[in-house]
Design brief:
The complex is a heterotetramer.
Chain A lengths: L1 H16 L9 H7 L4 H14 L2 H12 L2 E4 L5 E6 L2 E6 L5 E6 L3 E3 L4 H14 L6 H14 L5 H10 L3 H17 L4 H14 L2 H12 L3 H50 L7 H22 L7 H23 L8 H23 L15 E4 L2 E4 H23 L1 H11 L1 H6 L4 H23 L11 H14 L4 H22 L1 H18 L10 H4 L1
Antiparallel strand pairs in A: 1-2, 1-5, 2-3, 3-4, 6-7
Helix pairs in contact in A: 1-3, 2-3, 3-5, 4-5, 5-6, 6-8, 7-8, 8-9, 9-10, 9-11, 10-11, 11-15, 11-18, 11-19, 11-20, 12-13, 12-14, 12-18, 13-18, 15-16, 15-18, 16-18, 19-20, 20-21
Chain B lengths: L1 H18 L8 E7 L7 H20 L7 E7 L5 H14 L4 E4 L3 H14 L3 E3 L12 E3 L8 H11 L4 E7 L2 H16 L7 E6 L7 H11 L5 E6 L2 H13 L9 E3 L4 H4 L11 E4 L8 H13 L9 H20 L4 H8 L3 E3 L5 E3 L7 E2 L2 E5 L5 E6 L4 E2 L8 H4 L2 E3 L6 E4 L6
Parallel strand pairs in B: 1-2, 1-3, 3-4, 4-5, 6-7, 6-8, 8-9, 9-10
Antiparallel strand pairs in B: 10-14, 11-12, 13-16, 14-15, 17-18
Chain D lengths: L8 H23 L11 H27 L6 H20 L12 H5 L15 H25 L4 H20 L11 E2 L3 E2 L2 E2 L3 H27 L1 H11 L1 H6 L4 H27 L1 E2 L6 H14 L5 H20 L4 H15 L3 H6 L13 H8 L1
Helix pairs in contact in D: 1-7, 2-7, 2-10, 2-11, 2-12, 3-5, 3-10, 5-10, 7-8, 7-10, 8-10, 11-12, 12-13
Classes of the chains: A alpha+beta, B alpha/beta, C alpha/beta, D mainly alpha.
């Protein structure tokens, strides 16, 4: 494969210099791209790359992105605006070709081998084409494939490159190729340093590879560079684990904060809390489903629609439960446990009947996909947004409870019902609204959890125990306690996990909670005073 | 009051038992369906119940069996293992079913096994499992480890040049056994112990950040790395979501899964998972006229043109076909006669081959390896030339290597070192 | 902190604070054997907290709390303190509502309170006699078989006093014993307390000045967790500071 | 004399009569009559009843701590399961060389997970007496330890309930681990013999059923003896006014530890009888939902009545058995609705409501007048 590629690269270089003088018929190789024969597909990819035609480059790019389709109606090969369809371009002519949704299109498939081949082809092809981001991506893909054939175009591209960031990426990529290619030792040793400067796991992998299979001098340089990265990574690891812990803490906080209201403030041992979370997740599913068919352009922003609707829906369910069942049980917390347990069974089975028992698909919007590197820390966007979202929910809730008239009434009712009633507060209304608030918050937690977990009737069950642990650990009736509890348990869990494994880590956390409650029988943030003990 | 109490208790104890009134009608042949319709396993098992209802309906349209209509008896063991045993007993001794199609998890099978052996009835078990078992009363229509795990590893080693392996699984017997077999197999192929990482997580594990990061770390040692996943159903969605989010692409570190099929993928946005693999004996995307007809029939039956089919459904399809043929051949639903007729029974599978029931109660199946496509389907990238017979006992586990499962004369045994002759 | 004291109850420099709120502030109090002491003070003066400290419900942050000169109450829990011979009657009558009057008294009766003795315990003739006696004193004899939950408020107060007697304590702490009682009941209660005082020391916390006057004992006035005056009721009534505290500034 | 209490009471006598009748009639009708007879009790009914009666014993043990002492344990299933595991270990060792790998010492799951030798905590379980001791000792010791910590620290109310749940959840996770040496998710199964008799023989089943009846009756009498003794007075006092009880000089923590431990032992025995009849013990018995369900049986039957708890266990499980067979698709609706309905309309449970005329040690809901008095 290497000699071929080298030839292609050469051709490409030539082709890139001159305008596409030879207008070739792209139709045949394009048809092969959407066919079933994998071997033919590989050849067609190379043939297209050989043409150096910008249209071919566009088609290959689209193939890599999953935007290359065959229209079912007329078998025409088209490039769509997104992976789900949208505006179409005729791949052969570059002309606009209307628009379509995924249902009318057959996607061009790839397997891993072809995908790798394609990224190599694209890397060389787009090194000098496209904007800075594309060029960096091209350099990145060469860094990954480390194809010796890419060396020449890369060197040429570096010479022509003006953007410093792009050039750095290209130089690193070039160093990567040099490092693993037989050549002058000095050059390879320098390359090891360049790769080492990149400092991440990919660089480490490459260096270790070089350290295993190189002349001793090069290997030593690679090992040294690798050791530097490793030292850095050890420190990063701890920070990384803390960041995972915060993210898990945010999830726990979201799941538990609604319970902190229904259980913590109202004293209802709400076993149906998890089902409220689940209903919120299903609301997200319904809205995305609706978006997919009715308003595909909204799909990426459907979460913004889902959050208020999930809140309203689960709050409404909460009011329904409160008015029909729970209001008869105030002051009998243990009986609320039984009744809400029954309710949770009913809700679960109802969802199972309506939506079926299987997982439903809730997709991540593009702005929640992927990851971001912050000083070597890898943070995924979905987790980051969930942390932000949890923080917002918490602050808003705190505001509602502490600063609004409703919050005041709520606290008045929970502290002294008779007194509140005699002061003209409509306690029943406040009860219903409080429960609605707790349920609604659970619902929006469901929206967030739908992004990282199964949307199935069992969703709620997997969070209910953890939620209770968080609320109790933090101290019942105290939102700050819930926050502290969620973060403590999240971080502790993630710090223990690499040491003890997921299961033992979790057991250790549970034992810790049991022991902690012995020390502080009313949780982390308990009020010490006469009233509490009575 | 005292009398009330006494009668209440007596009533509860005796009458409640009698509530499950004895079955009488004998003009039908009853088929038991023992799949969880509620609880954690409902997510996977409900579909199998529906498939069985469809197959039975279909058979009845063809005139039933032995001149009688088939009658499906559905119960809900509710993902509760002792309840599985109770319901199995109820199906066999009260409903007098001719055979039972059911179970998903190993533990549910283990829980009903003594009941089936005691009451001598037949269970058709449709899920890939850890092997190391061959009961006279169970027909295993799912894959044994040699029909799934080993071919998948071979494929990765030869096609993707993988030399470093992560064996990640849920902590229960199927992943444990599979990984044990794979570890022995990989070592026999010269893989060094430090190139194998084994990781177990609890059921329903939902926070995969650390483990995916660890896999990433393990994969950045400069050698081509792959993940062999025996992660169980529910935990897969968050696992794959985390993989996608942390940017692990199939071109870097491919993941081959044994428990992820079309049903599981239907709950995920598969775009970030392009190219990750699964090894099964059936893919919905296989182009075959029998399969096309099956899919059409299924989607019509379930009244949802988007519903997918998967491997355990095919296993039930094959198992049910074989059972009906065996009943016809034996001319009776008598368990012993049907069992004898089952051996060597052939049935068309949905991927264009003909599966055969072995004397060890396992069937022969093709092994398919597929890459995940953007639409939640699999793209078959590799397939065994012939069907692979299922092996009850793995040669890679020393204790089981010496055991033979053969329920015909002279062996007559599910796991013996010497024939038993009776 | 060895302290030589003949006092049955000795508090010195006791501080208690709850989340920054100082409930007791250097409180010192001495009750001699056989004495009856009335403690008065406005709401929040620390009367109940003082009782909590003595009976082991609340641990003091600092200070000395001694019983009979030898037992450091700040180190003992409620049960141990009760076993030493300090009985407490709550402001709100707390009896075991589901138990009969008899069983309430039986539970209070001085006895070996170990788990295994309770499993096999039978009511002895002596115990029965003692309970009958208390039933007589508290005039609950006819109600012995009724669940305590259905007693009237005053009857519950008496039952609780009866339970105190059954405990046979050396020191009684009585918190507002006549709240909610009729005048005649109040009078009877005063008589009963004086009667009890013959053999035991008593500390009474009370709002009702006429009742305190009826008791005719030494009075301690608490305010913001400290003692501001001590002496006969007339003397403390004349105290400027007390007047100021009661009437507000 | 006012404090005179009957050891069992009329309800209890009725209950014991039923249990004795079951112990005699069920095996007799099962073994003595041919299957064709109208009065024949089929084996699966024997097994089913045996299972329910084990649950009934668990319910009684739970009622003892919850109904009489106010300790709502959401982790009682853990003691039940531990007793079950102790029995399961004995049954595993009895398999001997009849396992699939024929290892005389190691159970099958250990063989194929490459265990080379029996872990120390499996020693002794080949002896029935040892296993029987462990059935009581292990749950008892755990309860004692847990109670000693929790009750001394005065963990009460929902805090206690939640940490009992944490306890059973931690055990669930621990027993799921294959490395623990308890068979992981599959648990212990494939039993052959108990005391030399085949566990699948009708005679053994009948004997196990009788043993269950005896244990249930014994457990009931023991629990009853506790609640009518002076200890029972203290327990109810603790339930209704814990701190008042302390001010009388009772060491509340010791009483709680005692009753919690006794109850755990009883639950362990129930679990031990359950395992050979059901044929499997695995970690799902530790699931918090199981413990919550047990609480629901007690609530349905009537807490603080003992007999009611047993009745609730049998009724709810009977209901469940019937529904999962008759209405497999919708039975959860019915079960859920039952729980809601019982809490709303029968807050004292079935027996508590039936026996409403008599004094029950269940705190009455305060009347408005009382609440007002309390608020003042």
């Amino acid at each position: 494969m290497s000699p071929t590629l080298r030839r292609i690269a050469l051709v490409l270089l030539l082709a890139l210099g001159a305008p596409a003088a030879w207008a070739q018929d792209l139709a045949a190789p394009l048809q092969a791209l959407v066919g079933d024969d994998l071997a033919a597909k590989g050849e067609a990819m190379e043939a297209l790359a050989r043409t150096g035609d910008p249209r071919a480059a566009a088609a290959l790019q689209a193939l890599g992105d999953g935007r290359l389709f065959q229209r079912k109606s007329d078998r025409k090969v088209v490039i769509a605006a997104t992976t789900r369809g949208g505006a179409l371009t005729d791949a052969a002519t570059g002309a606009a070709a209307g628009s379509a949704t995924a249902a009318d299109l057959d996607e061009a498939n790839l397997n891993n081998r072809l995908r790798r081949q394609l990224s190599g082809l694209l890397g060389s092809l787009t090194l000098t084409l496209g904007d800075a981001a594309t060029r960096i991506a091209a350099a990145e893909s060469i860094f990954k494939t480390r194809d010796a054939a890419a060396l020449a175009p890369l060197t040429a591209a570096i010479a022509a490159e003006k953007d410093a960031r792009v050039r750095r990426a290209m130089e690193t990529a070039r160093a990567a190729v040099v490092l693993v290619t037989d050549g002058a030792e000095a050059e390879r040793i320098a390359a090891a340093a360049t790769v080492g400067a990149r400092g991440d796991r990919d660089a480490l992998g490459l260096l270790l590879q070089a350290a295993n299979a190189s002349p001793p001098a090069v290997a030593a340089a690679a090992r040294e560079a690798a050791a530097t990265i490793q030292r850095r990574l050890v420190m990063l690891d701890a920070a990384q684990n803390v960041s995972y812990g915060i993210s898990l803490g945010a999830v726990l906080l979201l799941a538990a904060v609604g319970l902190a209201i229904t259980f913590g403030v109202m004293g209802v041992i709400n076993m149906a809390h998890g089902e409220m979370v689940m209903l919120g997740a299903y609301t997200t599913f319904v809205i995305q489903d609706w978006c997919r068919t009715a308003a595909p352009q909204l799909l990426d922003h459907s979460l913004f629609l889902a959050i208020p609707l999930a809140f309203l829906f689960t709050a409404a369910v909460g009011v329904l439960l409160e008015r029909s069942v729970i209001r008869w049980l105030y002051g009998r917390p243990l009986e609320t446990l039984l009744a809400t347990w029954g309710l949770s069974l009913v809700i679960q089975q109802a969802v199972r009947s309506v939506f079926g028992p299987t997982n439903r698909e809730v997709s991540n919007p593009t702005w929640m996909s992927g990851q971001v590197d912050v000083y070597g820390l890898t943070l995924t966007w979905s987790r980051l947004w969930i942390i932000v979202f949890a923080a917002i929910v918490f602050v808003v809730l705190l505001f509602v409870l502490k600063r609004t008239a409703f919050g005041l009434q709520m606290r008045a009712v929970t502290q002294n019902r008779a007194m509140a009633s005699s002061m003209g507060i409509r306690t029943h209304r406040v009860d219903a609204l409080t429960f609605a608030l707790g349920s609604g918050v659970a619902g929006i937690a469901g929206v967030a959890l739908s992004q990282i977990d199964n949307v199935s009737p069992n969703l709620g069950q997997s969070y209910i125990i953890d939620s209770f642990m968080v609320v109790v650990f933090g101290g019942v009736g105290n939102l700050w306690g819930t926050l502290a509890g969620a973060l403590t348990l999240g971080i502790a869990n993630k710090l223990l996990e690499p040491m003890a494994g997921a299961v033992l880590g979790k057991i250790a956390i549970l034992v810790f909670i049991i022991l902690f409650i012995q020390r502080r029988p009313r949780g982390l943030f308990a009020l010490r005073g006469r009233a509490v003990e009575a | 009051m005292n009398m009330k109490t006494a009668s209440a208790f007596a009533g509860a104890a005796l009458a409640a038992a009698a509530m499950i009134g004895p079955a009488v009608a004998q003009d039908t042949i009853k088929v038991g369906i023992l799949h969880s319709l509620s609880g954690t396993m409902a997510i996977s098992e409900t579909t199998l119940k529906d498939v069985m209802l469809m197959l039975i309906e279909e058979q009845n349209k063809k005139g039933g069996l032995l001149g009688k209509k088939l009658e499906a008896v559905v119960v809900d063991p509710a993902s509760n293992w002792p309840l599985f045993a109770e319901k199995a007993r109820e199906l066999i001794s009260q409903q007098k079913v001719a055979a039972v199609f059911g179970c998903w998890t190993s533990v549910s099978r283990k829980s009903v096994l003594p009941v089936f052996e005691e009451l001598n009835s037949l269970l058709f078990y449709p899920v890939q499992y850890e092997g190391e078992e061959s009961s006279r009363n169970v027909f295993y229509t799912g894959a044994a480890p040699n029909q799934q795990a080993i071919p998948a590893v071979d494929y990765l080693a030869s096609e993707e040049k993988v030399v470093r392996w992560v064996l990640a699984g849920t902590d229960y017997v199927y992943p444990r056994t599979t990984n044990k077999i794979l570890e022995a197999y990989l070592k026999s192929k010269g893989v060094k112990p430090e190139d194998i990482m084994i990781n177990y997580t609890p059921f329903g594990h939902s926070d995969w950040q650390s483990i995916v990061a660890e896999i990433k770390k393990f994969g950045s040692a400069g050698k081509k790395t792959a993940v062999v996943s025996t992660i169980n159903g529910d935990a897969n969605v968050p696992f794959y979501k985390e993989l996608g989010n942390q940017g692990i692409k199939a071109t870097d570190i491919p993941v081959v899964a044994f428990s992820v099929g079309e049903e599981e993928l239907a709950g995920i946005d598969t775009k970030p998972l392009l190219g990750h693999l699964a090894a099964w004996n059936y893919f919905m995307s296989v182009k075959d006229p029998v399969n096309d007809a099956f899919i059409k029939q299924w989607q019509a039956f379930i009244k949802n043109p988007k519903r997918v089919t998967n491997d355990p459904m095919e296993a039930h399809y094959i198992g049910f076909t074989m059972w009906t043929q065996a009943v016809l051949q034996a001319g009776t639903t008598d368990v012993n006669a049907v069992r004898q007729a089952m051996y060597g029974q052939k049935a068309k599978n949905l991927t264009g081959g003909i599966s055969v029931m072995g004397v060890n109660h396992h069937i022969s199946k093709p092994v398919l390896i597929g890459e995940i496509k953007g639409d939640g389907q699999f793209n078959t990238v590799w397939k065994t030339k012939d069907l692979v017979p299922g092996a009850a006992w793995s040669p890679y586990i020393p204790e089981s290597a010496k055991l033979t499962a053969d329920w015909t004369y002279p062996w007559v045994c599910g796991g013996c070192e010497k024939p038993k002759y009776n | 902190m060895p302290v030589e004291t003949s006092a049955v109850l000795y508090l010195d420099g006791v501080d208690v604070s709850f989340d920054g709120f100082r409930a007791l502030n250097g409180l010192s109090l001495v009750v001699e054997p056989g004495e009856m002491r009335a403690i008065i003070g406005p709401n929040g003066a620390g009367k109940t907290t003082m009782m909590d400290v003595v009976t082991g419900r609340t641990r003091p942050d600092s200070g000395t709390v001694l019983f009979a000169g030898v037992h450091d109450l700040s180190r003992l829990d409620e049960a141990a303190i009760a076993e030493l011979g300090i009985g407490r009657k709550f402001q709100r009558p707390t009896v075991f509502e589901m138990h009969t009057v008899w069983d309430n008294l039986l539970l209070a009766l001085k006895q070996r309170r170990s788990v295994f003795r309770c499993l096999t315990a039978r009511t002895t003739a002596a115990e029965r006699a003692r309970l009958d006696e208390i039933l007589g004193v508290t005039r609950l004899g006819d109600l012995r078989g009724l669940p305590a939950g259905i007693l009237s408020h005053g009857q519950k107060q008496w039952l609780e006093i009866g339970m105190l007697l059954a405990q046979d304590p050396a020191l009684l702490l009585v918190d507002e014993p006549v709240a909610g009682m009729t005048d005649s009941e109040t009078e009877q209660t005063a008589m009963l307390l004086r009667d009890i005082n013959r053999t035991r020391s008593v500390v009474v916390v009370e709002h009702d000045m006429s009742f305190v006057r009826a008791l005719g004992v030494r009075v301690t006035v608490l305010h913001e967790g400290s003692v501001i005056a001590e002496g006969s009721l007339d003397a403390v009534s004349a105290n400027e500071r007390v007047v100021e505290v009661y009437l507000g500034r | 004399m006012v404090t005179r209490r009957l050891l069992v009471g009329w309800t209890g006598i009725a209950f014991l009569a039923v249990v004795v009748a079951l112990a005699v009639l069920v095996p007799a009708l099962n073994l003595g009559l041919p299957p064709s007879s109208r009065f024949h009790v089929p084996t699966h009914i024997v097994v089913l009843l045996g299972k329910w009666l084990c649950y009934a014993l668990l319910a009684i043990s739970l009622d003892l701590v919850w109904g009489y002492c106010g300790i709502l344990s959401l982790g009682h299933g853990a003691f039940f399961a531990l007793g079950g595991y102790a029995m399961g270990m004995y049954l595993m060792r009895q398999i001997g060389t009849r396992g699939v790998y024929g290892n005389p010492l190691l159970p099958d799951f250990m063989v194929f997970l490459n265990w080379k030798e029996l872990p120390w905590y499996w020693y002794g379980f080949d002896q029935f007496w040892f296993a029987a001791l462990m059935v009581m000792l292990v749950p008892g010791a755990l309860a004692f330890l847990f109670g000693w910590f929790a009750f001394r620290s005065r963990v009460t109310g929902v805090y206690l309930s939640i940490i009992t749940q944490a306890l059973t959840y931690a055990l669930l996770l621990a027993f799921f681990r294959n490395d623990m040496g308890f068979g992981g998710n599959n648990g212990l199964t494939d039993f052959r013999e108990i005391l030399g008799w085949g566990v699948r023989e009708p005679g053994t089943r009948a004997a196990l059923f009788v043993a269950t009846c005896v244990a249930l009756a014994g457990g009931f009498v023991a629990a009853r003896a506790m609640v009518v003794s002076r200890l029972g007075l203290v327990l109810v006092a603790v339930r209704d006014a814990e701190s008042r009880t302390r001010f009388l000089g009772w060491r509340v923590d010791r009483f709680k530890v005692f009753v919690f431990t006794a109850s755990a032992v009883m639950a362990g025995i129930a679990g031990a009888l359950y395992v050979p009849q059901v044929g499997i013990i695995n970690p799902s018995e530790f699931a918090p939902t199981n413990s919550i369900e047990a609480v629901i049986w007690v609530a349905v039957g009537g807490r603080g009545t003992l007999v009611g708890a047993a009745l609730g266990a049998v009724l709810v499980n009977g209901f469940k058995t019937w529904l999962t067979g008759a209405f497999p698709e919708v039975w959860l609706f019915a079960l859920g609705a039952l729980f809601v309905a019982v809490t709303l309309f029968l807050p004292k449970g079935i027996l508590g409501t039936l026996g409403g005329r008599r004094r029950r040690p269940v705190p009455p809901t305060p009347t408005p007048a009382e609440s007002r008095a309390a608020a003042e």
